[in-house]
C-alpha cells in the first residue's frame, strides 16, 4: 500500500474491487488507476504492437496506456481508461491485449521482432504473396492487434438523448471555468457548466496551491454551493463536450450511471445536443512527456499526473513506500511535483533538469544539465540512467515523473478547421483567433495556466462572451492566488540509439519518425499515416506535439513550419449505444398504428411493417395451420361475399381552392380539372424526369375541393412534392393543401355483398347502381349521424367501396361493420390478401411502380395527356422513353402449383440467358385461390403482342428455371363487369 | 445547424428536409420550342458552388413551408432565409 495523507478520497467509504481476478480495496473518490497505484500495482496493460508491459501514464482522459475491460457479462466494456473509471464497490476490471497472464504475455515476442514492425510495416511486409493478405496476414494481425473484447451480448442498459439551450456554455470546471460560471451565473443568464470529471475544480484539485490562503478545495466547495443555488446555472459533471458542430451546437455525453454497478432506474448515458449562444472553452491543458531510451516502463509517468495522484488521491506512484521517486523535467513545473511529493512525505531522489541553469525550490537534489538516458526493470521501473556531459550513472528508483511542458487543450477550437497557432513563449500551440464563432478559449486552454491568470481569464472570457450577446456582466472578486514559476526550455527528446517512445498507445518511437523522414513522409499528415502516430483511441493527446518537434528537428525547420495538428470530434471515445440514444429494437423508429390496430390485435392478426406503419397482414382462424390457408380463405371471401380491410395508411391530401382543378391537372399526367363533382378518377403521377412515380385516386367533393390519395410508401414524399410545386413553382394558384392521412380512418368494404352490408349502416343514402355508380363519391352520414365519406372504388376488382370516418371512429366503424355483416359472412382481410386480390386483377403496386418504369410500360401511356403540361410530361416523350417496348403482362406457370419467384428474368426458350437476350422480369407473384394456380405479373418486351407464348422464367440465384405462359394481367373479370354492377 | 425561419425564428435543421439548388423553382416552359433540352438541363444539371448557394429546404416537421436558404457551403454560415412562395412571386413581378 502506498497511500499518502490527505486527498479527496473518503476513507470512511472503502470499496472492494478486482483486477485480473485479484481482490483489492480502494475508497470512494478513487479512480481505478489511483486505487491500483495505491495497492502497488504499476503494471496495468500491454502495448498495442510490441506487447510491452505498460503502466499508467496520466491521471485523466488523455491516458494512452492503462486501457482495461470493465465489468462482466453483457455489461463488459472494452478499451476504457483506468484513469477515468470511477471506482465502485464490486467493480471487476481486467487488463487487455495480452495472451496468457498479464505479467507473461506470449505475444511479447513481438517486441523481439520489432525490426519487422517498423513504420509502414503493413505496406512493406505483407505485400506478397498477394493471396496471403486475405487468408493469413489480415486474420493474424486482427487477432494479435485487437484491444479489448466485446461481450457479444445485447447491451442491457437504456440510453437517452436530449436537447439543452443556454446563453453561455462553459466547457471545463477548473479555475477558469468556475470563475466564468460565477461571473455569468450572477447576472442571471442561462449557464451550463460541463466537466468530464466527477468533481468540480479541474486542476485545482490536483495542486497544492492555496486560494485566499486556504485549501483550493474550500473555494471550489463554496463556488459549487453558490452555483447550485442559482436556478439559471446547470452543473453537469461526468459530461464530456466531445464536439462542436455548426451554429453553436455542441455534442456532449453525460455518463449518468457509469459509476454505478448497475444503472437501476437511471439511464446509463445521455447524449446531449447543446445549443449555446456563446461558449467559454476552459478545457485546461494536457502535459507532454520527453521521449528517452526505454521510457515506456511501468512507473514512468507524467509528472503532473504524479502530482495529481499525490494531492487528489493521496497515492504515491511507487510499488513500495521505500522506493525513491525521480523527476525528469525541462522546466520549473517538474520541480513542483518534487516539492508536493516531499510535502506528502514521499521519498524523492531529486530532479533531473535538462537546463544548465536549473533552479532549486526546496530541499532536494537537482541534477542540472542532465537527462535520463535509460531505464531498467522488466515489469516495472527499478533504475534510471542519469547522464550529464557524457558521464552516466545508474540510480535505483521506483517511479519517474516526466515533465515536458503543457499543451493547451485546443481540441474543440480546432473542430471548425481553426488551426492552432504556435506560441514561442509557451512552447505550445494555442487556439487560433479565427476558430469556431462564439467560442472563447480561457485559462490553461488559452495558454494561461497559472492559477491567478486562469481565474482572471475565465472571468474576462465570460464578460466578453456576454457582452457579445448584449449582456453586461460585472467583474467579480476572485480569490488571491499565485502563478507558480513556469519557465521552461525547448527540450523535446533525449537523442540516443535505443527506442524512445513518442506515442505509447500505438507504439511509435523516435526511430519510427526518423524512418518516416528518411522515406520522405515529411508532411505531418503523411507522418501520422505512415507511423500511425496519434491515431490510437487517445488521438495522440500526449504525443502529437512531441512528434512534431522531433520531425522539426530532423527537417531543420521550426515546429510551426513543420505543421500543426488539429483534432477531430470526438474529444474522447463515444459509445455507439449513446449515439443511438435508445433508438433500438422496437424503438428504432416511430411506429404508426392504424385506427383498427387494437381491434385487429384482439382478432389475433399477424402484423407487418409497412414503412412506419404496422398493418394487419392476415387474420388466422382456429384450425388454420399455414398463412396460405388463411390468405386463401380471406381472398375467396372477398370474391364471393364481403371483406373488410383497413386502408387508412394510404396517403390522403386535401386540396382546396378555386385553382384546385388546375393544380391537379399539372400534378397528374391525366386530366383532373374536368372531373365531375361527386366522381372519382384514377390518377397517375410522373416524376419530372418522365418516369412513373405514384398513383392514387382523385375524388372531387365540391367544385373547389378534392381529396387525393397516394400509395402508403410515398404518402410523405408525394405531399412534399405537391407542396413544392404549390409554393415554389406555382404560388400564384389559389390552392391549399393539407395531409389528412391520420385524420381519416378508411375501410375498404369489398365483394359482391358489400352494397348489402353498407346499406345497413348508411343514414338513408341511396346506394343503388344508378344513384351511386362505379367511381362515385359522396359526403354523407352513417350510423345515425356520423360524418363520413364514401368512395365507390375497387382495388380487388369486385364491387367495392371505401368508407372514411374521422380517425377516432375507425375502430367503432370496423366493429359495427363486423356486427352488421355477420350473416353475410363478413371477413376481415390483411395486406397479403389485398396483394393477392390486386395481382389477380392486374393492378400495379410498389413492385411495378419502383421508380424505373414508365406509364407506357404500365399500359397507362395514354393517360399522359398531350393536351396539357404536367409534371414529367415533356421528359416522358424523350426518344429513349418513347422507344421502351416492355409492357406489364400476366404469367402462369405451366406447372400451376410451382411458384414463380418475383425477380426472375424472362428468356425465350432455347436461347442463352444473357443480358442481351433478357426479355424482362417478374415483378409480383402469388398463389391465386380463385384460379387454383400460381400467377405472376411482370414486364415483357412487346408483352401485349405475345399472349400465349411460353417463356423461361429464370432465377439463377437459386438455380431455378420454369416455363411460364404469357397471359393478360387481368386474371379475374377482365371486362370489369363486377366493378360496375 | 440552425435555420432562421422567416416566420418562426431559429429552427433546428433536423426539422427540415433538404432539396437543393433554388433554381428548381424556375421550371421551363413546356410549350417552348426547345422544351425537351430545357427540361433536361432543369432536371439533371446543377451548379455546385463552393461558397454562397441558394437552396430549397422544406420545414417538414414544422409549418410545411418551403424556404429559400442562402448558405455558404464552405462554412455552413446561413446568410438568410425567405419563404419560397414570396421569392417566386417576387421574381414573377
From TrEMBL, chain A:
Molecular function per GO: sarcosine oxidase activity
Keyword hit for Oxidoreductase: yes
Pfam family membership, one: GCV_T_C
Domain SoxA A3: 497-582
Source species, domain of life: Bacteria
Sequence ranges assigned to domain FAD/NAD(P)-binding in this UniProt record: 167-295
Keyword terms of this UniProt record: Oxidoreductase
BP GO annotations: tetrahydrofolate metabolic process
Coiled coil: none
Span of domain Aminomethyltransferase C-terminal: 886-973
Keyword Oxidoreductase assigned: yes
Limits of the GCVT N-terminal domain: 597-868
Family: Belongs to the GcvT family.
Name this polypeptide is given: N-methylglutamate dehydrogenase subunit C
Organism: Celeribacter persicus
Top-level taxonomy: Bacteria, Pseudomonadati, Pseudomonadota, Alphaproteobacteria, Rhodobacterales
TrEMBL record, chain B:
Taxonomic classification: Bacteria, Pseudomonadati, Pseudomonadota, Alphaproteobacteria, Rhodobacterales
A Pfam family the protein falls into: SoxD
Protein name listed in UniProt: Sarcosine oxidase subunit delta
GO biological process: one example: tetrahydrofolate metabolic process
InterPro entries membership: SoxD, SoxD_sf
GO molecular function: sarcosine oxidase activity
Top-rank taxon, per record: Bacteria
Species for this entry: Celeribacter persicus
Amino acid at each position: 500500500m502506498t497511500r499518502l495523507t490527505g486527498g479527496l478520497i473518503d476513507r470512511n467509504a472503502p470499496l472492494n474491487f478486482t483486477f485480473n481476478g485479484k481482490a483489492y480495496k480502494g475508497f470512494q473518490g478513487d479512480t481505478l488507476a489511483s486505487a491500483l497505484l495505491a495497492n502497488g500495482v504499476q503494471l496495468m496493460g500491454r502495448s498495442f504492437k510490441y506487447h510491452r508491459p505498460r503502466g499508467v501514464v496520466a491521471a485523466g482522459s488523455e491516458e494512452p496506456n492503462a486501457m482495461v475491460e470493465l465489468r462482466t457479462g453483457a455489461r463488459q466494456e472494452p478499451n476504457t481508461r483506468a484513469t477515468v473509471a470511477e471506482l465502485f464497490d464490486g467493480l471487476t476490471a481486467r487488463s487487455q491485449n495480452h495472451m496468457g497472464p498479464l505479467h507473461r504475455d506470449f505475444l511479447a515476442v513481438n517486441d523481439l521482432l520489432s525490426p519487422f514492425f517498423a513504420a509502414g510495416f503493413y505496406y512493406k511486409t505483407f505485400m506478397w504473396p498477394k493471396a496471403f493478405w486475405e487468408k493469413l496476414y489480415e486474420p493474424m494481425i486482427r487477432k494479435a492487434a485487437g484491444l479489448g473484447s466485446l461481450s457479444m451480448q445485447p447491451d442491457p442498459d437504456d440510453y437517452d438523448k436530449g436537447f439543452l439551450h443556454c446563453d453561455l456554455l462553459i466547457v471545463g470546471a477548473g479555475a477558469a471555468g468556475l470563475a466564468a460560471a460565477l461571473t455569468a451565473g450572477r447576472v442571471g443568464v442561462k449557464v451550463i457548466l460541463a466537466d468530464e470529471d466527477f468533481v468540480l475544480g479541474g486542476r485545482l484539485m490536483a495542486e497544492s496551491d492555496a486560494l485566499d490562503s486556504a485549501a483550493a478545495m474550500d473555494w471550489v466547495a463554496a463556488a459549487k454551493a453558490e452555483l447550485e443555488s442559482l436556478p439559471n446555472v446547470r452543473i453537469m459533471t461526468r459530461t464530456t463536450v466531445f464536439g462542436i458542430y455548426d451554429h453553436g451546437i455542441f455534442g456532449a455525453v453525460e455518463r449518468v450511471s457509469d459509476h454505478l454497478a448497475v444503472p437501476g432506474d437511471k439511464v446509463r448515458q445521455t447524449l446531449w445536443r447543446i445549443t449555446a449562444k456563446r461558449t467559454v472553452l476552459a478545457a485546461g491543458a494536457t502535459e507532454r512527456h520527453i521521449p528517452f531510451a526505454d521510457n515506456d516502463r511501468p512507473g514512468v509517468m507524467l509528472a503532473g499526473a504524479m502530482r495529481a495522484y499525490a494531492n487528489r488521491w493521496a497515492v504515491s506512484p511507487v510499488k513500495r513506500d521505500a522506493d525513491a521517486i525521480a523527476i525528469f523535467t525541462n522546466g520549473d513545473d517538474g520541480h513542483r511535483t518534487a516539492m508536493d511529493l516531499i510535502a506528502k512525505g514521499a521519498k524523492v531522489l531529486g530532479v533531473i533538469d535538462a537546463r544548465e541553469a536549473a533552479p532549486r525550490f526546496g530541499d532536494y537534489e537537482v541534477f542540472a544539465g542532465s537527462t535520463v538516458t535509460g531505464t531498467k526493470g522488466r515489469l516495472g521501473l527499478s533504475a534510471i540512467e542519469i547522464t550529464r556531459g557524457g558521464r552516466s550513472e545508474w540510480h535505483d528508483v521506483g517511479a519517474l515523473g516526466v515533465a515536458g511542458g503543457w499543451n493547451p487543450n485546443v481540441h474543440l477550437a480546432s473542430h471548425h478547421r481553426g488551426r492552432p497557432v504556435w506560441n514561442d513563449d509557451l512552447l505550445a500551440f494555442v487556439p487560433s483567433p479565427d476558430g469556431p464563432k462564439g467560442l472563447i478559449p480561457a485559462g490553461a486552454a488559452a495558454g494561461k495556466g497559472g492559477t491567478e491568470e486562469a481565474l482572471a481569464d475565465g472571468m474576462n472570457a465570460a464578460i466578453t462572451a456576454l457582452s457579445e450577446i448584449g449582456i453586461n456582466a460585472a467583474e467579480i472578486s476572485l480569490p488571491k492566488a499565485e502563478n507558480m514559476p513556469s519557465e521552461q526550455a525547448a527540450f523535446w527528446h533525449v537523442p540516443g540509439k535505443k527506442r524512445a517512445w513518442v506515442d505509447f498507445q500505438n507504439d511509435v518511437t523516435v526511430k519510427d519518425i526518423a524512418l518516416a523522414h528518411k522515406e520522405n513522409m515529411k508532411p505531418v499528415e503523411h507522418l501520422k499515416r505512415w507511423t500511425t502516430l496519434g491515431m490510437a483511441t487517445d488521438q495522440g493527446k500526449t504525443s502529437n506535439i512531441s512528434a512534431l518537434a522531433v520531425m522539426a528537428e530532423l527537417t531543420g525547420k521550426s515546429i510551426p513550419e513543420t505543421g500543426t495538428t488539429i483534432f477531430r470530434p470526438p474529444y474522447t471515445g463515444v459509445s455507439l449505444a449513446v449515439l443511438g440514444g435508445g433508438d433500438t429494437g422496437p424503438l428504432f423508429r416511430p411506429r404508426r398504428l392504424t385506427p383498427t390496430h387494437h381491434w385487429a390485435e384482439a382478432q389475433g392478426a399477424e402484423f407487418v411493417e409497412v414503412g412506419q406503419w404496422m398493418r394487419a397482414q392476415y387474420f388466422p382462424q382456429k384450425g388454420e395451420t399455414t398463412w396460405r390457408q388463411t390468405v386463401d380463405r380471406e381472398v375467396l371471401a372477398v370474391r364471393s361475399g364481403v371483406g373488410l380491410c383497413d386502408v387508412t395508411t394510404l396517403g390522403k391530401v386535401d386540396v382546396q381552392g378555386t385553382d384546385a382543378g388546375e393544380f391537379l391537372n399539372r400534378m397528374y399526367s391525366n386530366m383532373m380539372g374536368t372531373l365531375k363533382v361527386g366522381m372519382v378518377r384514377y390518377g397517375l403521377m410522373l416524376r419530372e424526369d418522365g418516369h412513373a412515380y405514384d398513383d392514387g385516386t382523385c375524388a372531387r367533393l365540391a367544385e373547389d375541393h378534392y381529396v387525393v390519395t397516394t400509395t402508403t410508401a410515398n404518402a410523405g414524399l408525394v405531399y412534399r412534392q405537391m407542396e413544392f410545386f404549390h409554393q415554389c413553382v406555382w404560388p400564384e394558384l389559389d390552392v391549399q393543401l393539407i395531409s389528412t392521412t391520420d385524420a381519416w380512418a378508411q375501410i375498404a368494404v369489398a365483394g359482391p355483398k358489400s352494397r348489402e352490408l353498407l346499406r345497413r349502416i348508411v343514414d338513408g343514402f341511396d346506394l343503388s347502381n344508378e344513384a351511386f355508380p362505379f367511381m362515385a363519391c359522396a359526403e354523407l352520414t352513417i350510423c345515425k349521424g356520423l360524418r363520413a365519406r364514401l368512395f365507390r372504388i375497387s382495388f380487388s376488382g369486385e364491387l367495392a367501396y371505401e368508407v372514411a370516418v374521422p380517425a377516432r371512429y375507425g375502430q367503432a366503424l370496423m366493429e359495427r361493420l363486423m356486427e352488421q355483416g355477420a350473416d353475410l359472412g363478413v371477413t376481415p382481410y390483411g395486406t397479403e390478401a389485398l396483394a393477392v386480390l390486386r395481382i389477380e386483377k392486374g393492378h400495379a403496386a410498389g413492385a411495378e411502380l419502383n421508380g424505373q418504369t414508365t406509364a407506357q410500360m404500365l399500359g397507362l401511356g395514354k393517360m399522359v395527356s398531350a393536351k396539357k403540361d404536367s409534371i414529367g410530361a415533356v421528359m416522358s416523350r424523350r426518344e429513349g422513353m418513347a422507344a421502351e417496348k416492355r409492357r406489364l403482362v400476366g404469367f402462369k406457370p405451366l406447372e400451376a402449383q410451382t411458384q414463380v419467384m418475383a425477380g426472375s428474368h424472362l428468356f425465350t426458350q432455347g436461347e442463352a440467358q444473357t443480358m442481351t437476350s433478357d426479355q424482362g422480369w417478374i415483378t409480383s407473384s402469388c398463389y391465386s385461390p380463385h384460379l387454383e394456380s400460381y400467377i405472376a405479373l411482370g414486364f415483357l418486351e412487346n408483352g401485349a403482342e405475345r399472349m400465349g407464348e411460353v417463356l423461361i422464367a429464370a432465377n439463377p440465384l437459386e438455380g431455378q428455371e420454369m416455363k411460364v405462359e404469357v397471359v393478360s394481367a387481368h386474371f379475374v373479370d377482365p371486362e370489369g363487369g363486377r366493378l360496375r354492377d | 445547424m440552425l435555420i432562421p425561419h422567416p416566420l418562426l425564428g431559429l429552427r433546428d435543421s433536423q426539422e427540415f428536409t433538404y432539396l437543393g439548388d433554388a433554381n428548381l423553382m424556375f421550371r421551363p416552359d413546356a410549350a417552348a420550342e426547345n422544351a425537351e433540352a430545357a427540361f433536361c438541363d432543369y432536371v439533371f444539371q446543377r451548379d455546385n458552388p463552393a461558397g454562397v448557394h441558394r437552396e430549397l429546404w422544406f420545414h417538414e416537421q414544422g409549418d410545411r413551408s418551403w424556404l429559400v436558404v442562402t448558405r455558404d457551403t464552405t462554412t455552413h454560415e446561413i446568410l438568410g432565409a425567405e419563404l419560397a412562395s414570396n421569392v417566386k412571386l417576387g421574381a414573377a413581378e
